Amino acid sequence: MAFHEVSLESEAVDVCISRSGQRIATLRHNAIDVLEWDLNAKPVPPPTRICTVSIGDEGSVRQICFVGEVDLFCLRSGAHITGYRLDPPGGKCIRRLDYHSDFGVARIFTHSDHEKVCVQSYGGRIDQASTSGEPLGFSNVCRFPFYQPLRHTSIAQVETICCQDKTVAFGLTDRGDLFANGEVLAKGSCTSFRTTPAHLIFTTAQHLLKFVHITSVENWSSLHLEAFLIPPDDPETDERCRAIERGARLVTVMPTSFSLVLQMPRGNLETIFPRALVLAGVRKSIASKDYKTAFLACRNHRVDMNILHDHVPVQFMLNVGVFIDQIRKVEHIDLFLEENVSATMYRETLRGIHINGNVSCVTSRMSSSNVASSKVNRICDGFLEALQTRAATNLQNIITAHVCKLPPDLEAGLLVIAKLREGELDSAEKLVEHICFLTDVNRLYDCALGLYDLDLALLVAQQSQMDPREYLPFLQKLQELPQSRRKFSIDNHLGRYPKALKHLHELGVADEIRDYVVKNQLYKSALELYRYQTGPLNDIMRLFADYLIDQSNFKEAGIAFEYLAMYEEAMDAYRAAGLWRETLLCAAQAPIPAAQVKELAIALAEGLYEAKDYANAANIYLNYGQDVETAARALCKGYLFADAMLVVVLRGREDLLETVIDQGLVDGLVASTDFLADCKGQILAQVPRLRELRAKKEEDPLAYYEGTAEVDIPDNVSLAPTDSSTSASLFTRYTGRTDTVNTQTTHKTSKNRRKEERKRARGKKGSIYEEEYLVNSIGRLIERVNGTREEMGLLVQGLLRRRMRERALAVQAALDEVVELIRGCVDEVFKLDHRIQVAAEGVQTVRSGGANGVLQDSPEEATRPGKPPPIKALEKLSLLGA
User: Fold this and answer.
1) What distance in Å separates the CA atoms of residue 294 and residue 615, rounded to the nearest whole number?
2) Strands of 101-206, DSSP E
3) Element (H or E) spanning 250, and its range?
4) Cα(545)–Cα(734) distance, rounded to whole angstroms?
5) Order of strands across the sheet with 125-130?
6) Closest CA to 379 of 319, 326, 299
7) What is the pLDDT of residues 159-192, one digit of tens each?
8) Segment holding 701, helix H or strand E
């Protein structure tokens, strides 16, 4: 099967094609036939012979190649090269030159730019020469490190990072090694390759098609894999790698049409459009501001339109008008605006993008929703600004730009239609149909109602699936209402209650306003409306205060009642909020009998005493109850002995020093010594137990961690737990990793997880959580001791001031003993088990779910470095011999 067939006088030996593809040279035994066909004609005519070149009997010709459109070179036996220049108008061919190589020519081929002839010698040498002058001046390109001919060779110009063009020869051996100037790019895996001005493209034995940029080589002196950025075998995420059919080979590449041809093992040819070629062409068009070509390529090949903006965002925003003028079609502009441009796609795989001679690194990417929204709105605003001067022809695009914002600006789009409806109703109906297509019709109908334009709302409703019996009576009823009442009804229907309240305020219906505020809880909006009207403001404030009481917001309710001078109500609200100062203030301002105020104060003091706010309770007892004795007892209860002694002396009750103050000091002494004795007992009990557990863990870690019984087990029997077929280490359970998990193992439910959490919190003796529980318990003990340090200091000072030196010494000695016990064991308690840490660091920890995760957390906590609370000692008095 062929597109056209051409008859030759004898069997063809070799065939070559010119740069344009419209001339074909066929080599026969003693002549060359040059054929030409017009590929631009429709339909394409058959090729016609334009001339025949006789090559005589000067030696057999092995190969021919085209350079450009008119230069034809032949490789003869004996390493002779003969060049011909075609003269198609005259129907003849002019012999141009002869060239002889001393190295032995293996093959000739054309440079990738089709302007030079290249020679490969048997010694691995590659030479090239330009055909612009005579005689040919061959220059060496490179020498490959072997002496056998290559299966395929190509020469290309590589643009380095420093913008210096270098010539690179690519070669493929029969063993699948791909070379670049003697450096290996692919070892034993390349099956075919081709070059373009921008890419090296090759297929691999792993059935992958790879694209390598040859316009951004970093290090010219070392052309290796890293220099050429050869992509990994990842066709799912990298545009430079694509999976192909097994055994496919490259035939040719057509960069201008973003396509390449593959020959399949069955012999058929298939044309594909790889994403890398398409994107390379799109980026090139964008760089040259040819947005129409880039847009059509994206549209034809289903490339996300993001790339038109994301490739060079600043350039695009500065040339939105150029984009619109080039695209022209309203439908195409809409297609771009309607594209989901909230995400950035097609990561640029070049290390730098050369635009107008400058390198612009595209490294920033937008990920968060706020950045995406900003990007969309920025693009839409840029189009709206550019479309203002083109409104006569691009009204549809203006509406699309409004609707495509995040969130959609439906009101602005509807206002454009509303203005147009006054003069061009037909055009307005088409635009309504378009905007209804872009967004939800019901939402659009509500937005049109919100503009208070009933005619526009009717146009939108007619484009929806709504039953006319639903919206026509409603719109007719609205049409009959006065303007303010109509606006109130619309806003109330749409749930815009604060705006509806403003329209009620314009109508001046006080009773209706009050009911509407209570119904919709619009107290804040009503307060703002009536901020300059004292009477209505107080009414709303009273309603708001009642609402706050219902919501148990007693503090703000009390403030509102106090603002209204309703002191009794404010007193009750403040008392419910626990604000004793505000409560007593309002009680003093309200007409309440003094006896009732005193009862209230005593009740408040009792509440504060129960809440352990002893200082404020004493203040109330003293100032409102005139009860010096009870106030002093409260201060002593809070270890405020200095304040208690000052109060009894200033009030002339020195007799309370012995009956109340001394008794308070004794009570504090008893409580403190009992507390310190409990702390000492806890340390003496828990530290040895912790030491015992860690000793068992060192002796038999498997039994400690897994809970296996201490029985005699043969050496050849695995001790791995039954839910794991392999036990890589004794600490697998604590890293959350097992090699093979039994398929019958089920996930723990949330109920089991809570049960396991409770077990962990209890730290039952003998359980896996006991060690962690003991460590945490001692840590909490240290915090409690630190918390009582200030109170004990006040107790010691009070005892010494009341001439109880021996008792003060006893408290200080008990505290010192506990502190010394803590200091002596803290390093041991909070130490780190280094063996478990090393084992855990060797495996990446993955937390399990359910109760297994709780089990995993316990040893992980144990393996973390201990960080005990700081130990604070009592500031000793020198009067006690410290």
Assistant:
1) 79
2) 105-110, 116-121, 125-130, 139-143, 152-159, 165-172, 178-180, 183-186, 190-195, 199-204
3) strand 249-254
4) 57
5) 105-110, 116-121, 125-130, 139-143
6) 319
7) 655 545 678 888 898 889 898 887 888 888 999 9
8) helix 701-706
The answer, as to whether pTM is greater than 0.85, is no
Cis peptide before 536 (omega within 30 of 0): no
Asked if 320 and 385 count as a contact pair (C-beta separation under 8 A), the reply is: yes
* CA–CA separation, 743 and 188 (whole Å): 42
Partners of 195 in the β-ladder: 200
**488-534 tens-digit pLDDT:** 999 999 999 999 999 999 998 999 999 999 999 999 999 999 999 99
- List, in order of start, the domains of the chain with CATH numbers: 14-194+211-229 (2.130.10.10), 291-392 (no CATH), 408-480 (no CATH), 627-706+730-738+749-882 (no CATH)
Which two structure tokens, joined as six digits, stand for 882? 């410290």
Q: What are phi and psi of 428, to 5 degrees?
A: -65, -40
Parallel, antiparallel, or unpaired: how do β-strands 92-100 and 241-243 relate?
unpaired
ω before 407 within 30° of 0 (cis)?
Answer: yes
Kindly indicate the confidence band of residue 137, based on its pLDDT and cuts at 50, 70 and 90.
low
* Residue range 441-494, pLDDT digits in tens: 999 999 999 999 999 999 999 988 888 888 999 999 999 999 999 999 999 999
Closest CA to 393 of 468, 319, 459, 330: 330
Please list, in sequence order, all residues whose beta carbon lies within 8 angstroms of the beta carbon of residue 25, skipping any fewer than 6 positions away.
15, 16, 17, 18, 32, 33, 34, 35, 64, 66, 72
